Amino acid sequence: MENLAIVLNRPKHPGNIGAVARCAKNMGISSIIVVNPLNADREKIEQMATHFALDIVEKIKYFDRLDLALAPFNHIVGTTGRSGNTSLKRSMIYPAKMAEEIVDLSQNNRVALVFGPEDRGLTNNELQYCDVLVKIPSSDDLKSINLSHAVMIICYEIFTARAGNTSVFTPKLAASAEIEAMYDHLREVFLRINFIKTQNPDYWMTNVRRFFSRTRLLARDVKIIRGICHQVDLYGRGKTR
User: In the chain, what are the domains?
Assistant: First the structure.
């Protein structure tokens, strides 16, 4: 559980940050990251966290940008309540399935559990950073779930999945910063060799992201891909045979 971090992106209410801190304490997670909060009133955060989770509140890390907050993580789980346009990287799965994967991955990799703002959730651009998308099923009578409740459901599934021990674990994956740098490099080379259109290149890169998301990239895999890009670039400039 020490390799897991809860990431709250643009939360609106300080009380929810405090409630999430208590949920984290309940489930044995000690790391919370808050990105660009609308209101981070410390007194209100501590009031909802209660004295039981004050140590979690004191260690909260704050960032202005989501990409910087996620840069060191090897695997990123994004939560969403929307059913449309979620093919950016992978199909949606339910929490129980996600938890099985996380128990394996978190042995050798840092994992971020990302939650969007209370009213709208994560945007499509923000979901692009995620390696897997998770949807919590709920009644048609009320589909929206309170932020702290969603955090508790996800963390509980991971906590209980730990009971099934596995003897073989996934090796360390490439960090988010390495993956994003690879996509930037690919985008630059693809534009230079006219593989993707100059009009709205980010749209065409969505398909590239979806292609690579079908496998878990190790750091050495990213280095190989960038090495190929470098050689293609040199060839295009006439600097190599």
Answer: 4-161 (3.40.1280.10), 176-236 (1.10.8.590)
